[in-house]
Amino acid sequence: MLLKDFFKHLLIYKSAFAGLIIILILVGLSIYTIVALPYEEATKLWRAGEQYWLDNPRNSPPSWINFFLSRKLPETIVLSTDRNQPGVSKAIISVEGKFSVIRVEISFNYEYDDFPSEINLFFKSNFTASAPKVTVSWIKPNGEEIILKIFLISKDYSYYISNDENLVRDLISAISKKFNKTFEYGAPLPLLLFAQEDESIFNPNTAKVTKGRYKLQIEAICFETGIDLFSKLVIYGKVHGWAGTDHLRRDLGIALLWGAPIALSFGVTASASTALIQMFIGAISAWFGGKMDTIIQRITEVFMILPFLPVLIMISTFYKFSIMVLLVVVIALTMFGSGVKNYRAMFLQIKEFPYVEAAKAYGADSLRIVLYYLIPKVLPTIIPSIVLSVADFVFLEAALAILGLGDPLAPTWGKIIDDAFTNGALYKGLYYWVLEPSIMLAAASLSFAMLGFALDKIFNPKLKEI
Amino acid sequence: MGERHLSIKSLVMYYRTLRGEVKAVDDVSFSLPKGETIAVIGESGCGKSSLAKSIIRLLPRNVSVYKGTILFNGLNLMDLDEETFTKEIRWTKITYVPQAALNSLNPIIKIGDQMIEPLLLHQKMSKSEALERAAKTLKAVGVNEAFLHHYPFELSGGMKQRVIIAMSLLTNPELMILDEPTSSLDVLTQANIMNLLKSIKKEMKISMVFITHDVSLSSELADKVAVMYAGQIIEFSDAEAFYNNPKHPYSQKLMESVPTLRTDKKLGFIPGSPPSLLDPPRGCRFADRCPFAFEKCVKDPPIMHLNEGFYAKCWLYEKESP
Amino acid sequence: MSSPLLYVENLKEYFEIRRGPFGKRSYVKAVDGVSLTLAGREAISIVGESGCGKTTLGKTILRLYEPTDGKIIFRGRDVTHLGWRELKWYRRETGLVQQDPFGALPPFMTVKRILEEPLAIHGIKDRKEREKRVYKALERVKLTPIEDFINKYPHMLSGGQQQRLVIARSIILEPKMIVADEPVSMLDASVRIEILKLLQDLQRRYDLSVIYITHDLSTTRYFSERIYIMYAAHIVESAETKEMLVNPLHPYTRALLNVIPDPDPSNRFMIKEVPIGEPPNLINPPAGCRFNPRCPNFMKGICDTKEPSLIEVGKGHYVKCWLYD
Predict the structure, then answer these.
(1) Which CATH number fits domain B4-93+171-238: 3.40.30.10, 3.40.190.10, 3.40.50.300, 3.40.50.2300?
(2) Does the structure's ipTM exceed the value 0.95?
(3) Which chain A residues contact residue B21 at CB under 8 A?
(4) B61 CB near a chain A CB, below 8 Å?
C-alpha cells in the first residue's frame, strides 16, 4: 500500500520514469549477461588473445552502421569445408591407391561497396610424413584466374593472403603493365583482388568493387592415402557484430555487456555502503559526543584532506586490484569522508527530538537508540543521495580504469575506453570504440541522477514545488 | 449597529494541493463597525489564518477559488486590481501581524531600518521623516526609541512583539489583522501585549480582526466573536451574548472545555476530531460530534439570523430565524 | 499522607557553558535548590513561565540529566546517582509524557511497535505477553477499537490520539510515577480537557502519581492537588490547590493569578496590572529574591540583598518571600 503510493508519487516526475526505465533495462541486461555469459567465461574470452578471435576483423565498427551509410561496408565472410556451407565443395580423388588429389572450391557472392580488410586462408591436414602440395587460385566473376601461390603445407597452416608481399608485387606489376601506368599508392591485396581492372584502380578513392561470384580453388596433391584437408577462407569485413571489435579482434559486445553488471554492482555497493557506514559513524559521533566525537571528527578531517587519487595510485602500485579489492579500498577511503560531517549534523538535530528523549526515559540504551531511533529517521532522507552518488561511483570506476588502476581482468566500460585511448581510436576515426562505452556510462549515471533528483523531491519535500 | 466598517459576504478561498483542494475559507460572512474588534476563534486547521490572509489578499500560490465581497468603507476590495490593492490597502489602510511574527524580523537588519521600509516604499517618505515617525510609534507601544538602532536579537520576546505591533501601526491603519499575536509568549508578557492592544484600540480607534485559538484570551479584546469550524463561521455573535450564552452547539461545547480559574465548573470536551478541509461532510460539518444532532443535520444548515445581524449556522435555530 | 513516593531535596541542575575552548566557564543554573514531595497516587503541578527551569526539573527528577547536587529519593531508594544498570529499574518505575505528541513518537514506527519498544527493552520477550500488554495499554487510554489503530503510523493519528498513544507508552510498564511536561499545550482546546481527564483517571485508578508541569494555572485547578510555583529556578510558593488559588501570597503568584483571563466579556474594558520587565537569565540571577527587580512590594535593602527562605506560613502553605518572614 505504502509502496504503491510511493510509486504513484514517483511517477509524477517524468525524469524519474525515464530514469527508472533505463535502470530497469540495465538491470535486465545485467541479468541476461550473467546468465548467458558467466563471468569466468567472459574474462577467459576477454583475455583469450588474438588466436581465439582470428575469425573477427580488426578495429571494426558494428554492422548496424551500414543502415546509415550509402556505401555498404563488407561483413566478414567465413567459409570452411567442415560446415557444409553452400558454395563450398570438396572432392577427394584417389589416384592408383598411392596418392590422392583433393580439390576444394569455395565460392561466394560479394555484393558490398567496399573492399574487405584482410583475407586469410587456414589449413589443417592429417598427413604423417610428406606434406601435400597445394595450389591456390582465385577466380574473379569475369572468369579471370590468378594463381595465388603454390606451396607445401604443414599440419596446421595459415596462409595470410593479404600479407603475401610477393603476390602483391606480382599483381601490381601485372596491372601496371596492362594499363602502362604505375601505382601511386601501396594498393593492399584485397583491393587488387576485388577491384575492377580499369583506370579507376590507380586511385584508392575511385577504385570500385567488382560485385559478383568469386571462387577460390584449392588443389592439394597428397603423397599419402587417406589424407583429409580442412580449409577455411576468411574474407574479413569492415564491420562486425552489434558492437564492433577492437585492436585484438575482440568482440566489444562482451565488455559492453559485462560492463553493465560490474558498473551497477560497483556503483550501488560502493554508494550504499559508503553512505551507511558514514551514517553509522556520524550517528555514533553525534550521540556519544565528547571524546568519541572529537576523535571521529579529527579522523574525518584527516581523511578529507587526504588526496584520494594519489593514495589510490600509490596503493595500486603495490597491489594489482581485482574489482572486489578496488571496491573495498574505495569504501575504506571514503567512509570517513565529508558525509560523516553532514550526517553528524543531522543526528545532532535528531538527538534532541523528543522521541529520542522518550526512548531514553523508558530505558533504551545507546546502541538501541543509535540503531533503532536515530538511523531509521535519517534513512529515507539519504536514499536520494545514495541513488545520486551511484552515478559518481560508476564514473569513478571508469575513471580509475582509464588511469590504469582498474581490475586488469574485468571487461568494463572504463577498460574499453582505456584500450581505445591507448590505441588511438579517435585519431584513427574509430569513434564507435569510445562512443559505445561512453554512452553506456552516460546512460547509467544519467538514469541514477534522474531518479535521484525525483526521489530527493519526494523524500525532502521542502524542495518540492507545488 | 453603527457604520459598517468592514463587511464580508460569502468569502471563499480554496487552494489546491497534491492531495486535493483545501476548502480553507468556505462561504464566510460577518461585519464589523468602526473601532471594534472581532475575535475569530477556532481550533488549528479550521481556516482562521486563511481567513485573515484572504482579507488582506495574501493568498497561497496555488489558490484555485477566491471570490465573495469584502466591503471596506463601502469599497469592494475584490474589485481592486493587484497594484491598487498593494498601493492603497495592504500595509497602509489594513495591516497584518502574521503568526509567529517574532521570527519574521530580519536578524541582520536594525529595528529602525526594518520599520521604515514600508514607509519609504509605499508612502515615499524621506528617511529622516520616516525614522521620526518610527520613533514616535515605538514610544507609543512602550518601547524606548533607542531600540531603533538595535538588532532584533537584542530584544526580548515581548519587546519584539511590541516592535511588530508598532510596525503595523506606522501607516495609521484603519484595520489591523492580528493572527495569534501572543501565542508564543508567556502569561505575563501576553497580558502586557493585551494591555497594549486595548489601549491602541481605545486611543487610536483602530478596528481589529483578532485571530486566536484561546477562548479566554479572546475575551480580552473581542467586541464581536466569530467561531470558525471546518472553514466556516458557525456562529457570529456579540461578545456579551457569546461569552454568557453561546448558541451553536460547537460554541457551547468549546466554552465548556475552557477551564476557569476563579469559578468552579464542570469541564467538558468534544470527542472526535474536526473534519478534514479536503473533503468536509456534506451536511452540517459538526453533525457527527454534535450531541443535539437530528435528521435535518445531514443537510447543510443555512445562516440562521438571531438578532441584530448575528447568526448561528445550525438547524436548532430554524424557528427563531425571521 | 503516607510516606512519600518521591522526595526531592535541594536539587540542583547546572549546565556548563564555555565560550571557546579556553573561555571562562559559567553555569546556567536551571534548577537551583528545589525540594518537593510527592505522595503515592497524588497529582501535583509545577507552574511557571518558560525558562523558569520547570522542564529541567522534571527531566532531572526522571534522571534524564545527571543532578549537580541534592537528593532524589524514590520509594525509599536514593536514585540521585544510580548507575546504568540500576537506573533501568527506575526507568521502569517512571514515565514521561512530553509536550509535542507528534515529536514524542518515532515517525517510522507503527503504534504496535511504539508500544512494544519499552517492553522489549525491559526484557519481555514473549510475543503473546507483549501483545496482551499493548492491548491493555491501548484500552486504558481508550484508543479503541484497537484494530483501527494498532498498525497505523503516528502521522495518521490526530493530535489528541497521538497524545493518548504517548500516555499509553508511558504507562505500559506500569510505573508508579509519571512526569507530564505540558502535556496539552500543543493540543486544541476541545481535546485538552479530554487528555487531562484521561491522565487524572489513570492516576486515580492505577496507583499512579503525576507531576504535571505547566504554564497554565487554570488547568491545575482541576487536575492537581498541590501546586508548586516556580520562578527563576526556585520554588517560590507551594500550597494545596484550593489554598493557592484563594490565598496566593507571593507577589509573583498574585501577578500570575491576576493576569490569567477567564472568558468574560468585561475583560475588554480592563487594563490589568502586570509586573514590569522579564524573568532574569539563569546565568547571573539577581541577588536576594530573584523576583525583586519586578516586584510591586519591593523593599530596598532587604529583597535585593538576602535570599529569602521557603517558610511555612499556613498548613502546608510555603512561601519564599520577605513579606512573610
Answers:
(1) 3.40.50.300
(2) no
(3) none
(4) yes
